[in-house]
Amino acid sequence: MKSFDPRVNRIKPIEEKTEMNIGEAWEPYEVFHQKKRGDHHIHVGSVHAPNAAQALLFAKEQYGRRQNCVNMWVVRTADVTQFQYDDADIFETAIDKEYREAYGFKVRDKINAYKKQQTESK
Amino acid sequence: MTPALYNFILKTADDCFILGHRNSEWTGFGPFMEEDIAFASMAQDKIGHAWLLYKMLDENAAAAETLAFKRAEKDFKCCHFVEQPIGEYDFSLMRHFLFDHADQLRYEMLMNSSFEPLAHFAKKFKGELKYHTMHADTFILQLGNGNEESKARMQSALNFCLPLALGIFEVYEGEQEIISQNIFAGEKVLQEKWLEKILPIIKDAGLQMPDMATLQAVNGGRHGFHSDYLQPLLKEMREVVDAFPDAIEW
Amino acid sequence: MYGNGYISPEETAKQKPDPLAGEDLQQLALFEERIARGEKIEPQDWMPKEYRRQLIRMIEQHAHSEVIGALPEGTWITRAPSMKRKLALIAKVQDEIGHAHLLYNAAETLGKSREAMINDLLSGKSKYSNVFNYPATTWADVTVIGFLIDGAAIVNQVINAKGSYGPYCRALERICYEESFHLKQGHDALVHLAVGTKEQRAMLQDALNRWYRPIIHFFGPSDKASVHGTLLMKWKVKMASNDDMRNQFLDQYVPKIRELGLDFPDPKLNKNAEGVWEFSDPNWDEFFATINGNGPCNAERLAVRRWAEEHGRWVRKALINPSQKQVLPLS
Ligand SMILES: [Fe+2]
Ligand SMILES: [Fe+2]
């Protein structure tokens, strides 16, 4: 039957069973893009590619075609090590770690008291 | 604008327009999803470049549309290379490799053109064309050095493409004037630079370069003599426009 | 476009009477609490088998819809009638392939390889949005698809973006952003026909007539009764009923067609006093026949995809890296 798509009429569409073999989709690479100089590279997704050079080419169009971008990294997904979400409790803390925060250090009261005492003793 | 300059810009634009149109046919039909996306972007770039050049020929917005959608086939100045159907991906990739290296070098040379608007566009197109050749080189190198099938396919694509590719450099009407006015250094110069650029890549890809002396360039396009493929391409492209002769806007 | 959360009857049949049989109840409670708190589920998390199965099915179906959705509009890619339309259409169809890509990656995080998903598409085992089994017979169809089908897809995708599965939500966020361009360019092209010559306008009306039923079918048959209180709603896999989504769509888009002095070919299409849109019986038998492979373009769509996979095979095979690892994308 004639297709409404002239492109389809130029090829011979395949009626029989066709399969993609395992491995033909190569392997995933994680993509990080940097919007402008000075920014961090941010993870935006992944591409499948046979090698890093190709992954960069693909990443450029899939993740860079619509937004500002000055640089990109790709990393083989197989090379990424991550924590398990099950272990997310390691990020929890038992006490409020005010000793490592700016707000944990307040001496204004002490200074004021000292000043007051000095004035009074004069 | 002199007829020579007009002709020079027109044939440059026509090449990009027709090749962009051809390459856009792959959208949704590519060999791999990621590559489908990349190839569609490059097709858009090509049509975009052509559009800007058409507008350079006539500032009237409708003029570019007329050039693309109403002009007679014999008034097109593109080479036969870009008119060829997309074929299989080996051909389309090889054409992309051979054409875009020439295109990139052409605009590199045009950056010093005495015709300022062309020099300006040449700088604007630079980044896109760099990506195009980066993409092409990566594929040619990998597939040339790939398996038996990909080697054989790329080799026969190269053999098939080269005579057609030489048609890019066909002398056109007014070329001497363009050279003497320092608008563009000429197709001969471009062809030499092009060979210098592609030969090492073809070699690294493990492909055999046919003896250039035996190759006969497929010419005619620059003088309005086209392959059998251009007329049907234009007819298809204009199917909607032609069916609605009274329509002013789309 | 368009993984509506529609579950075909055969899928329901496959569902075990107790989809939670054998699950670790303690883990299940933690999982459900997390969703109830509004937190997202990430690929590495524990999840019930039924959650995984339904999500794979849904995201995969959505991905297939994008890849097949590129074909009806692609029909006019070589014939778009102006430079701007030509570029916009290539960019739009390209985006749909891009959406498929993002969605296959998202589905893959759940453990099904891209190859396996594509194979299920090619064999006809997996479904995709029914609407793409209809042909785009004129240029006006492209404008109707771009405006109304993409419009319907946006309704669906914006709702689904609030779901519970992190990778799907992230993909949908980017997709929705691009869909706003699709909608605009579709509306722009449609309006140009509506206000153009009488022939242009007639072509548009004809397209509206032909696409009306597939559009009503888009969100699937009424599922209110079956969906409320089900696991899928609780797990934020399905976020709204088909009727609610359809109603929201009609509410937004029917006026935008009617303001152009055009209409759909259904005298019963109207909003009732309760704000609910009513329409004539859209013949759900036709919908089921099409979904089961008997629509006007099912065979062509798959045959074209098979061609693309088969003719791209040599490229993919030649580049296979012998040391490549079969791993899942991270997120
Ligand atoms: Fe989409
Ligand atoms: Fe879309």
Description:
The complex is a heterotrimer of chains A (122), B (250) and C (331). Chain A contains three helices and three strands; from the N terminus they run αββαβα. By secondary structure, chain A is of the alpha+beta class. Chain A has one domain (25-121): Ubiquitin-like (UB roll), CATH 3.10.20. Chain B has a single domain (3-243), classed as Ferritin (Up-down Bundle). In chain C, α7 packs antiparallel against α8. Chain C has 331 residues and is mostly helical. Chain C is globular and about 65 Å long. Chain C has helices at 9-14, 25-36, 49-74, 83-108, 114-122, 139-160, 166-194, 198-217, 224-227, 231-234, 242-258, 284-294, 298-319, and strands at 270-271, 277-278. Chain C has a single domain (24-319), classed as Ferritin. Chain C starts with 8 loop residues before the first helix and ends in a 12-residue tail after the last helix. The model of chain C is unreliable at 1-5 (pLDDT under 50). At the B-C interface, α2, α3, α7 and α11 of B face α3, α4, α7, α8 and α13 of C. The complex binds fe (ii) ion (2 copies). One fe (ii) ion is lined by residues 1, 66, 96, 99, 175 of chain C.
Brief write-up:
Chain A has helices spanning about 5-10, 50-65, 110-120, and strands at about 25-35, 40-50, 70-75.
Q: From the 3D structure, determine the CATH topology of chain C.
A: Ferritin
Uncertain runs of chain C with pLDDT below 50, 5 residues or more? 1-5
CATH architecture of chain B: Up-down Bundle
Largest sheet of chain B: none
The helix-strand sequence of chain C is: HHHHHHHHHHHEEHH
Strand content of chain C: under 5%
The domain count of chain C comes to 1
Topology diagram in text:
The complex is a heterotrimer of chains A (122), B (250) and C (331).
Chain A: H1 6-10, E1 27-34, E2 42-49, H2 52-64, E3 71-76, H3 108-121
Antiparallel strand pairs in A: 1-2, 1-3
Chain B: H1 3-24, H2 33-57, H3 61-69, H4 80-83, H5 89-110, H6 116-144, H7 148-166, H8 175-180, H9 187-204, H10 230-237, H11 239-243
Helix pairs in contact in B: 1-2, 2-3, 2-6, 5-6, 5-7, 5-9
Chain C: H1 9-14, H2 25-36, H3 49-74, H4 83-108, H5 114-122, H6 139-160, H7 166-194, H8 198-217, H9 224-227, H10 231-234, H11 242-258, E1 270-271, E2 277-278, H12 284-294, H13 298-319
Antiparallel strand pairs in C: 1-2
Helix pairs in contact in C: 3-4, 4-7, 6-7, 6-8, 6-11, 7-8
The complex binds fe (ii) ion (FE2) (2 copies).
